[in-house]
Amino acid sequence: MTQHLRLGVNIDHVATVRNARGGRDPDTVRAAHLIAKGGGDSITAHLREDRRHITDDDIRRLKAEVPLPLNMEMAATDEMVAIALQVRPHAVCIVPERRAELTTEGGLDVVSARAALGPRIARLVEAGIQVALFIDPDPVQVEATKQVGASALEFHTGEYCNAPNGDTQGGLTRAKELKRLEDASARAAAIGLEVHAGHGLTVANVGPVARIPSVVELNIGHAIVAEAIFIGFEAAIRQMRAAMDRARQGTSSPVAAGRRSA
Question: Taking the CA atoms of the chain, what radius of gyration do you get in angstroms?
Fold first, then answer.
C-alpha cells in the first residue's frame, strides 16, 4: 500500500489579505476548517517577529477552535519558544527569519546555530511538541539537525522550484536539485528523522518531490492561496491533494494521459 503523503496547508497569506484591509476577513479559522474538507492533514502558520501576517490571536484561535494538528513556524527566539509552550501546538518548525525578506529565503545554518538551538529545542521537546528544523538539503545540516535534538526536518525546496529544467552548462538544474533532495531525504530517514518538504511548490512542480519515498509531509501555502482567488480555497486544496496523490501512486494527470493517447 502506498504511504499517505500528508499535506500541511500554510494559511499565512489568508492573513496577509485580511491585514491589507484590517478587520477579521478573511478569517484564518474559517480557512483552517476548510483544510480538512479539502483533503489537508494539518495547518501551518508562521508567527513572525514582525507579525506581518499571522498574529498571536490567530495562533491561539487555531489551536483552540480547529481539530486539525497545528504546525507553528517560528524563529528560534525566547519569545517564540514561550508562546509555543503556552499554546502547545502539535509541532513547531524552526525557520530562519530576517526582517527585510519577503519570504523565507533559505534553510537554517544548524551547524553555526547549534548552541542557540539546542536548549530551545530541548524545552519544546520536553513539553511534548514535535520539533522540525527548516534546512537546505545538505548532508552536513541533516546530521546537525539530528545532533541538536530535533525529531524532524523540513527541506527547503525553493532551489528545486526555481532551477531551470534544461541544461545550463554545468549550473543548477531542476534534475540536480531533485537529486539533492532525494539523497538528503534518504539520509535523514536513515538516521531516524521524519522528513518534510516545502517552499515554492505548485501543482505543476510538486510531483517529483511527492514521489520521494522518505518524504512524509509537504507544507504548501502560497500556491494554494493564489489559486484560491480563481477557484476557491477548498477547491485549490483538493487540486493540490490530487496532484500529490497522483504522483505518490505513480499515475499521470488526466491531461498528460490524454496527450499520450492522442
Answer: 18
